[in-house]
Amino acid sequence: MSLGELYRELRMARGLKLKDVAGQKLSVSQLSKFENGQSMLTADKLLVAISAIHMSFSEFGHALNHYQESSYFRLGNQLANLQVAGDIEGLKEVLKNFEADENFDTYNRLTRIDIVSAIYALDPSYEIKEDDKQFLTQYLYSIEQWTEYELYLFGNTMSILSDADLIFLGRALAERNEFYLSLPQHKKAAQLTFINIILALIERNQLYYTTYFMTRLESMINYQDMFTVVFLTFLKDTLAYLKGETDDVQPMRECIEMVKKLGNPTMAKLLEEHLEQFIK
Prior knowledge:
GO terms for molecular function: DNA binding. It comes from Streptococcus ruminicola. By secondary structure, this protein is mostly helical. Among the domains are: 3-64, Orthogonal Bundle (434 Repressor (Amino-terminal Domain)); 69-128. The protein has 16 helices and no strands. The chain has helices at 3-13, 18-21, 28-35, 43-52, 57-64, 71-84, 88-99, 106-122, 130-142, 148-157, 163-176, 184-203, 210-218, 226-242, 250-261, 265-278. The termini are far apart. The relative contact order is 0.05.
């Protein structure tokens, strides 16, 4: 299906006629030719056309991708499931299949680093090349406006970063993340990334730096972010326990139960594992 044919299908599915969509910047003739494959629209006119059928560009892109996630995010879900299951051999098989492709441009190299980071998170004896760590750090710091891609990449590779690089890039995230926070999916990904930074710092006993990231996380949430609110409560209770301000772990267990009730048993399991590490 061509781009124009997809547009026509979406327009008609929304009960809109060509005259409903056309305007000063886009004529009925231009739209008709576009839908019939006789011509293409320039990028700016395509954005106008998408907006005119009351869709976001991300929604249109999702339809264009056959209502599936991008290959990178599909791989990310696969890695996450294997990691939660503790399946090191499964992760190594993913790496083996990926390395069969000899095309190693910037993004393929970053994807490989993503995969080996998942292996390292389960097996710290697995060797990660120093130049891969440097390549990852330099790439992330070179990006002035972080999109969902950088958020997921950073979140997935924290385990291989040094304490200094984790804090350095975490601060870079805080400074370069504001442009897309009005997008719900980006905001959700950013909140999860800050949560992962704080958890990583607690695991590494870098408690001093957690306050900065918790403050940034707290500034992003509102009444709609119940999942993040519960998580933030867990983190605050955990820090109070680790600092010796309380010896009661029941509040953390109650937060974990709330995460289960909110429909995320995978994250609840991870929190249980974190809690057991913290109270040893």
